[in-house]
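Long-time lurker, first post.

We've been arguing in lab meeting about whether thiamine diphosphate would sit comfortably in this protein at all. Half the group thinks yes, half thinks no, and nobody has a model to point at. So I'm putting the question to the forum: if I give you the sequence and the SMILES, can you give me back a predicted structure of the complex? Inputs are below. Any interpretation is welcome too.
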Amino acid sequence: MNIIDSANLVYRKTPVMTDLTMHYCPGCSHGVVHKLVAEVIDEMDIQDKTIGIAPVGCAVFAYKYIDIDWQQAAHGRAPALATAVKRLLPDRYVFTYQGDGDLAAIGTAETIHACNRGENIVIIFINNGIYGMTGGQMAPTTLDGMKTATSPSGRSVPLNGYPLDMTKLLAELDGTCYVTRQSVHSLGAVRKTKKALRKAFENSMLEKGTSVIEVVSTCNSGWKMTPDESNKWMVENMFPKYPMGDLKDR
Amino acid sequence: MRTEQEEIRLMKGNEAIAEAAIRCGCDGYFGYPITPQSEIMETLMDLRPWESTGMVVLQAESETASINMVYGAAGCGKKAMTSSSSPGMSLMQEGLSYIACAELPCVVVNVMRGGPGLGTIQPSQADYYQSVKGGGHGDYKLITLAPASVQEMADFTMLAFELAFKYRNPALILADGIIGQMMEKVVLPPYQARMTEEEIRRKYPWATLGKLRGQKQNIITSLCLLPEEMEAVNLHLQAKYRQVEQNEVRYETLHCDDAEYLIVAFGSTARVCQKAVETAREQGIKVGLLRPITLYPYPSEAIARIAGRGRGVLTVEMSAGQMLDDVRLAVNGAVPVEFFGRLGGIVPAPDEVFEALKTKLIKENV
Ligand SMILES: Cc1ncc(C[n+]2csc(CCOP(=O)(O)OP(=O)(O)O)c2C)c(N)n1
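Top reply:
Settle the argument with this. Predicted structure of the protein with thiamine diphosphate, as tokens:
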């Protein structure tokens, strides 16, 4: 069989992805979400109209893998950059890609206010419950009791407060139009996340407000588990606190 | 409706900046209110340029957000600006460091007030170090212009954009509460059209406007993990700064030709010193005034040249003596360099400056 023949083609890497080998740890969710974003851009044929804003965190190099124009923001400031880019280029698709430290700790103000203004942007929020890039310290989303480099005996509510459900908070804001929580640990979940991403990108031309997609993710190196154990641990422990599904769709 | 002509108006320095921004084709202003510069955004909101030129004006949630909005806009090759006063400028230092490293052109206005801390809303020049010695982390420079009149508030808004784009570097207008608040006659420049996207793509091929088919992606970043590469980035920046130092030094002199004594002062303090120089001249004392217009790059050579011919220099500032360091470096011990300053929002009076000249400088030489 000639596998090059397009009739026999069952899978093709989207040309919106570059050929670089990713720096992500095997099992990390970032790579899967990158691919989905690239596929959505490809399928919507908006490579020339999309501007990504990369965070500070493991995804700081997102611009190496998704072949579009990018700006790399200071830690937490991506929604401020995206605000200006979208306001000045309203016919462009503008998205931020941020971790939980970036979005829900240092960038809380920028995130809430961009969403509250109803900026017509897409915010992709990778919630792995930990600071991956800096070596596995506690994040605002770290679960109660969860061990990290800065909570070695487990997060303690009296000491560190409660895990922050930022997405729920963002759904409360009048400026958001679509707020959903997804994951990429199974084939079905990956498909759903891709659908959510597509919808969010489409929203950004409808002047409906901000679309937020949280992807509850694994960080097997940070969590010190195998990829498979991480997925199981996420379903058992993360999902009860961060349940899957749409929080808002208007 | 819009005329191509220049217009003569009586207005505040802050208002002049807003008018000039619209007229020079600024694409976006992002700011957060703080006295004594809130009239800049208030004037813009009142003039509604989004209905005339299409300029975006947005009140941000903080100065941290404003400067990062400027980053986003500037990354698209747009003419972007923000303004603030001292406490707000402290919040912007992170963003300025990123913008300087990513080599984005933008204009930032600081209408200085007395500090440290929340301080006072009265005028000051105590952000000199922050402006010209770094402010944020890393080795970087802001092209810094110091207006001394309402006219210069308007003129330097245009000049700052010109220099920012020429060098792909942030340009700072370092004014103070007096220049921001006082009213003077000002000739406003004619309207200049905003650049079209085609023009931006042609002139600024680095801008992130969307990757067109067949073109390579544009990436605006300040990240460079390999130290060898990061050193190369730094050396490139340093080479650019040497160019700026060679080409862009600006200053003004008054009665310097025969000056035995030299006063060095910038911004509104230079206006006060001008009066003191006149008084001294009336009494037969040969005093000259040098007013640096660019604080970075600094007119060191001019100061060395003029001071070298005389018997001493008096530096006058609304601070504890910050520019004084640069005057001393320029003079390099050739003649005595003395200082007179008022702090915390007090503006020195001309007779105080004249007294300081006599007691601190002339007496010592007798
Ligand atoms: C102002 C500032 N503070 C701290 C850091 C260090 N830092 C880099 S990434 C990061 C946290 C990243 O965690 P997260 O946003 O959850 O993303 P992840 O790496 O897990 O994908 C921190 C604290 C920084 N770069 N800048």
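For your lab meeting: The domain at 23-249 of chain A is CATH 3.40.50.970 (Rossmann fold). The CA atoms of residues 115 and 175 of chain A lie 5 Å apart. Whichever side wins, do check it experimentally.
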